[in-house]
Design a protein that fits this description.
This protein has one domain: Roll (Thiol Ester Dehydrase, Chain A), CATH 3.10.129.10. It has 5 helices and 5 strands, in the order αβααααββββ.
């Protein structure tokens, strides 16, 4: 069994790219049932100053679930908590870079807290899309 300290040592930081594809968008729209015009109508979004349909912010939570369940070096983990704040919209076709860095380890309760941010390339500069924390619990 991996300990919280071992997890933090084996994965002190990580960078991974996610692409917001039609498949990702369609799956989230279907799952959530959210057909708010900002997310489904290009014209509506353009009229409000956006360059296209604004993707669902909670797609990022799905990407965080992928990080915890598939990118960490053990499958014996569970998300206990997460917080996220959104800073800029993102769009269909965007490549978002997830960067995580271990911030806190509590061996007593078997927890690792990662600080994360999602960014995208805007003309050679990294633009902040969202940031927050994700608390990972180690399963027995």
């Amino acid at each position: 069994m991996m300990t919280a300290t071992q997890l933090s040592q084996q994965c002190p930081e990580l960078t991974h790219d996610y692409v917001v594809t039609d498949r990702v968008y369609d799956a989230f729209r279907t799952c959530s049932g959210d057909i708010n015009a900002l997310h489904v109508d290009d014209g509506f979004a353009h009229d409000r100053g956006f360059s296209g349909r604004v993707m669902y912010g909670n797609i990022l939570n799905a990407f965080l679930s992928h990080f915890a369940g598939m990118l960490l070096p053990t499958d014996r983990v569970m998300i206990h908590a997460q917080d996220i704040s959104f800073h800029a919209p993102f769009y269909l076709g965007d490549t978002l870079q997830l960067q995580v860095r271990c911030e806190t380890v509590s061996e007593a309760v078997g927890v690792v807290i990662y600080k994360f941010k999602f960014t995208r390339d805007d003309d050679g500069k990294r633009r902040l899309i969202a940031r927050g924390h994700i608390q990972i619990g180690i399963l027995a």
